[in-house]
Amino acid sequence: MNPRIVIMGPQGAGKGTQSERLAEAYDVEHVTTGGILRANKDLETEHGTPGEYMDRGELVPDEVMAAIVEEALGSRDGYVLDGYPRNRAQAEYLDEIADPHLVLLIEVSEEVSIERLSGRRECRDCGATYHVDFDPPAESGVCDVCGGELFRREDDEPEAIRRRLEIYYDETEPVVAHYREETDIPVKSVDGEQPPDDVFDDIESMVESTVPQPSASED
Ligand code: AP5
Q: How much is the pLDDT for 19?
C-alpha cells in the first residue's frame, strides 16, 4: 500500500529534506505547499498574491490553501504532505478531504531552527537545498545538481524567521495535539537533531511499522 504521510515540525526541522527522500523511497508524490506557493508567488487572488504573505513569514489565507491542497492531493493513493496543515482550520479541512496513515513530527529546538534557516541556500533553477556549514555545495554559490545559482530565501531573513517560528508555536504546534487527542491517526516523533541519514532511518522504521504493508495477494 502506498503510504499517505503528513510531515510536521518547526521551520528548518528538515521536513523538505526528509520528504524528498521519503517520496523517492516509496515512489509517491512530495506535496509541498511551500513549494507550490513559491512557484505561484505572483498569482493574483482575491486576498492578494501568496508572495505578499510569504516574504513577511505570515500564513497564506486558509481559503487559498484549501484550493491548493485539494487540487494537489487529488485522488492520489500515496503522498508525503509537507507544509499543511498549519492551523486548526486547515487540520479540520484536511480531516474532511484526506485519510493519512501517519503524522510524522520532526522535533528540533528553536536554536537549531534558526541556525539551519540562517544558513540555508536554495538553487534558483532546480530547487535543491544546501546549508553553508552542514551541507555545502562543492563550489560556493553554485548548485551541485544543475550548476544553477544558489540564493537565500526572502523568508530566511532574521525578521521573517522570527515571525514564522512565532506562528509555528502559536498555531501549528496545537495541530499535533489535535491529531493526538481528537483523531485515530498515529503521531510519531523523530529526533530531527541527528544527521539527515539517521533521521531518515528512524522515519523509515516508523513508516514500516505503521503503514499497512501489502498482503501476499496484492504483490
Ligand atoms: P515552507 O516552504 O513550507 O517553509 P517552512 O515550513 O517554513 O519550512 P522550511 O522549508 O523553512 O523548513 P524545512 O523543515 O522544510 O527544512 P529543510 O529541509 O529545508 O513554507 C514557506 C511559506 O509558505 C510559509 O511561511 C507560508 O507563508 C507559506 N505556506 C506554506 N504552507 C502554508 C499553509 N499550509 N498555510 C499557509 N501558508 C503556507 O532544512 C532546513 C535547512 O537545514 C537546510 O539548509 C538543510 O540543508 C538543513 N538540514 C536539514 N536537515 C538537517 C539535519 N538533520 N542536520 C543538519 N542540517 C539539516
A: 96
